[in-house]
Design goal:
Blueprint lengths: L3 H12 L1 H8 L6 H12 L2 E6 L5 H15 L4 E6 L2 H16 L17 E3 L5 E6 L11 E5 L7 H15 L8 E6 L7 H6 L5 E5 L17 H10 L2 H7 L14 H7 E2 L15 E7 L11 E8 L5 E9 L4 H15 L3 E5 L5 H10 L4 E4 L3 H16 L3 E4 L6 H13 L1 E3 L5 E3 L5 H12 L12 H8 L5
Parallel strand pairs: 1-6, 1-7, 2-4, 2-5, 5-6, 8-14, 9-12, 11-14, 12-13
Antiparallel strand pairs: 3-4, 9-10, 10-11, 15-16
Helix pairs in contact: 1-2, 12-16, 13-15
Length: 467
């Protein structure tokens, strides 16, 4: 017999999943976990694509327990990428049941097998590995937990084939299917399900791209995520934590190429070399938009020596800069580094920067009107610079160097060639890459004389006043 308190808890858990998850099972139900619960309850077939270490397995383990505990006779199939992994999940479920007073009664006195739990209320759960035959099964719920374990296209294709031809046919139309995992490829099963109307597919990266905020700050703060980023390759972090899968060999800037470009003896600097051994060039990718998901403004300063070897010197990377602030900043950088050329991307509104600067100064602005062909040419030139070791990335553990350069390296790693032959960034932002590519482009341009006007002078000439 259950103790009275356990009985009360058990009955409260029946009515309230949050109570079951937090007060009975002892875990924190974050807001995004609540979304998973609501999505699972409203849809027969769901696919949750989520960052590593954000409670995917724990949540669905508890969700299955909740469904089985309060719906006697529920049959569950639980799949992972290997039998060992599935049994490991079963072991953790068994431990949770046996250490939770309100759930102990679910385990019969005779016990159960490692891969098959038959509960006292006739519910059951069987652990299986992906690829196993499921003919003859009639599950009420099927969970696929991290069934992908390799980037190999043959394995990814094999899993997709098994899913469509072996698993789906045994599911009754009333059965519930929950798929959860981290993506491996833009051609994997999760990507295929996005294109099908019968699945509710939701994505939960560790960092929200539009806002830059962490998904679960109580467990993974932005500082902790940046620390983890510094401990992994850019491509691995992007896939495992940002849910953007790309194999290194598919990237135009593969991991080995970028690793070779890192120089951990150099740091970013706000000052030019005191010995005057370099010429400086600036790439400027402007952005003006109130949209939170809009690109950042990026100004990238590179130095080139007499052998045409280049390295990044300084980065200004900021979202939400208004027109005047960008004019002030480029004048400031020009005064400090005395660049040979400032290569400015001048599509749409950005032409106004060139017009204003021509009127108020003799800054060495070189407009670059971007289109797809020119952008691809820029990226290919940048790729060639890295391949030939003509461009170095400062990577000393000093100041903001690694934070800025990790952002750049991440953006670079997400450039790939699509099946249609088009070059594309699979990330949400590419402003640092474009600024770097523009600065490299600037090294080809002709030097002009420079006359500097400070912000008070240019604003007075234009009749601009501070608001």
């Amino acid at each position: 017999m259950l103790e009275l308190t356990s009985k009360v808890d058990f009955e409260m858990g029946r009515r309230d999943f949050r109570f079951f998850f937090e007060d009975i099972c002892g875990f924190q139900l974050a807001d995004f976990h609540k979304e998973w619960y609501e999505t699972s309850e409203k849809n027969k077939k769901i696919c949750v694509i989520a960052s590593r270490d954000h409670g995917k397995s724990v949540f669905f383990r508890c969700y299955l327990l909740w469904k089985m505990a309060y719906n006697p006779g529920t049959e569950v199939l639980f799949f992972s990428h290997s039998q060992h992994q599935s049994i490991d999940h079963m072991g953790k479920m068994d431990e949770l049941i046996m250490t939770t007073p309100a759930l102990k009664h679910l385990k019969p006195k005779r016990g159960w097998a490692k891969q098959l739990f038959r509960m006292s209320n006739k519910s059951s759960i069987r652990a299986m590995s992906v690829g196993k035959a499921v003919r003859g099964a009639h599950p009420d719920i099927v969970v696929l937990d991290d069934i992908l374990s390799s980037e190999a296209q043959t394995q990814l294709k094999s899993i997709s084939t098994w899913f469509y031809t072996a698993l789906l046919p045994v599911l009754h139309h009333t059965a519930q299917l929950c798929i959860v995992g981290t993506p491996f490829s833009y051609t994997d099963l999760y990507s295929e399900l996005r294109k099908l109307d019968g699945y509710a597919v939701k994505e939960y990266p560790a960092i929200d791209e539009p806002t830059g905020e962490p998904l679960w700050p109580e467990r993974w703060s932005l500082e902790a995520l940046n620390q983890r980023r510094s401990e992994m390759t850019s491509i691995a972090f992007t896939r495992e934590y940002l849910c953007k899968p790309i194999a290194s060999e598919a990237s135009l800037f593969p991991e080995e190429m970028l690793e070779n470009a890192k120089d951990d003896t150099m740091a970013l600097s706000y000052y030019p070399d005191p010995d005057g051994e370099y010429n400086y060039y600036i790439g400027w990718d402007p952005a003006i938009s109130p949209d939170r998901s809009a690109d950042y403004t990026c100004m990238m300063v590179i130095a080139m020596d007499e052998n045409r070897k280049k390295h990044v010197v300084h980065v200004h990377h900021e979202k939400g800069m208004d027109f005047n602030s960008q004019i002030d900043k480029i004048i400031e950088l020009n005064a400090r580094f005395n660049p040979v050329i400032i290569e400015l991307e001048t599509n749409n509104f950005a032409m106004a920067f060139n017009q204003v600067l021509q009127e108020i100064s003799d800054l060495p602005i070189k407009p670059f009107n971007m289109n797809r062909m020119k952008k691809e040419a820029l990226i290919h030139t940048l790729q060639l610079h890295f391949e030939q070791n003509h461009l170095s990335i400062p990577y000393k553990e000093e100041g903001s160097t690694r934070r800025h350069m990790n952002t750049l390296l991440n953006e670079l790693s997400l450039f790939t060639m699509l099946d249609n032959g088009r070059m594309e960034s699979l990330g949400g932002h590419d402003d640092m890459v474009i600024a770097l590519a523009l600065s490299v482009q600037a090294t080809k341009e002709y030097r002009e004389n420079i006359v500097i006007l400070d912000s008070n002078v240019w604003q007075s000439r234009l009749g601009v006043t501070d608001v």
